[in-house]
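Narrative progress, year one. The postdoctoral researcher (J.K.) led the effort to move from monomer predictions toward full complexes, under supervision of the PI. The following entry was the first complex the group processed end to end, covering 466 residues in total.
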Amino acid sequence: MTDRQRTPRLTLVICSLLGLLLCGLPLPRALDVLRPDLLLLVVIWFALMMPRTGGLVYAWIAGLSLDAFRGIVLGQNALAFVMVAYLVHRFHLRIRMFPLLHQSLVVMSLLWVYQFTLFWIDGVTGHPLTDWARWLPALTGALLWPVFTGLLGRITARG
Amino acid sequence: MAALREPGARYAPPRISALGLRAIVLMAVSIGLMVVDHRQHELGAIRAAMSAAVWPLQRLVHSPVAAWESLSSALASHRGLLAQIEALRSSARENDLKLLRLDSIAQENARLRKLLNAAPADAERVQAAIVLRVDLDPLRHRVLIDRGTTDGVVRGQPIIDAGGVVGQTTNAGPMASEVILLSDPTHAMPVQIERNGLRTIAIGTGDASRLALPYLPRNADVQVDDRLVSSGLGGVFPAGLPVGRIAEVRRDPSQPLAIVSATPAAALDRDREVLLLWYRPRVALPVNEPATPASHEARPKAKERSP
């Protein structure tokens, strides 16, 4: 019982660390604006498929570590992550049943919720950024979702 | 609704699920953190601990680049090294010559200052830092350097490179600090046109090769190729550091202000090493004096406090 619980936890931690690293990986500028929010995708996946392993507190910690990593106002990503994770938790049984294309669309709207929260907090704290390119990662994240969910499903199934 | 309720039924508050409750608590904690961090800056210890915790990760992200650089320097060709040595030698010769002249000028300057009863020039200390190849945010011009509070770095410290001003530190962790570049859209710095001493503000545009000078009137004496230096107002940057060169001046008769842009003197998007500068501001700055260029600088600075 404990073994079965520990393995997904370990996978969760490793996936989150990888997601965090990929958020900072140096990329050429043209690709950098397209970089999907991989850490958030990890959070969404675990909230969707393993809501007992990846709870809201996990989402909060993941967001907080992203804040520390990027050196922005502490709590900004944490708030947005918790909001998205709550939405996923609330509807996870429904979203799981959706076909993959439909699921991608849901993920895209979740990523947009995330970006909009960041955008809003940026405005409140006085660093508004009105470049249209800031909405692109949601699109690439949604495009990546089918591959991503397949990959993570494989990893956790094997573990 | 009240009429539909059964008579005698007690009012039942809307039920909140455990999940919703947890979400609300966590969101409230996040908002509290943000407020404390952004308004009061009282999270120094927590912030330091967290930035120390993510430091190995940031180092790990940088490591492939560092490995590649050390590999390419280990495999540099003999001929290339010779050429590099020759180039460095010739630049050292030129610099020696300049330094000779500078020494006499510095002495003369000190003598004149004494005559004028002015305070001595800024005391300065520099330290090199490596720019880590960690992408912080694609749309903001921030970089991470490998020096922190253990090396004496503080917030709001000027960063320069061989060409000129690069930016300032916005956040100093124990091992690493974040630097906002001149070209960040939320950065502004007080500058001066070297030719005639005209003071204005240079604002980042989000483009690493362009700064905007939006506050110059249409009839201002500014020409293409004028050199921009820091004016020393605002208290972050010492006076006289090269900032850039005017690239474009457009005067639209229907507009009260000229459209002026400059190219930065520093290699903002190509730097691998930068210099941290410690200096003592010569003049204590007025704190709440409106309508000076210093207050112009103070406003974007204030916004800049916690990015």
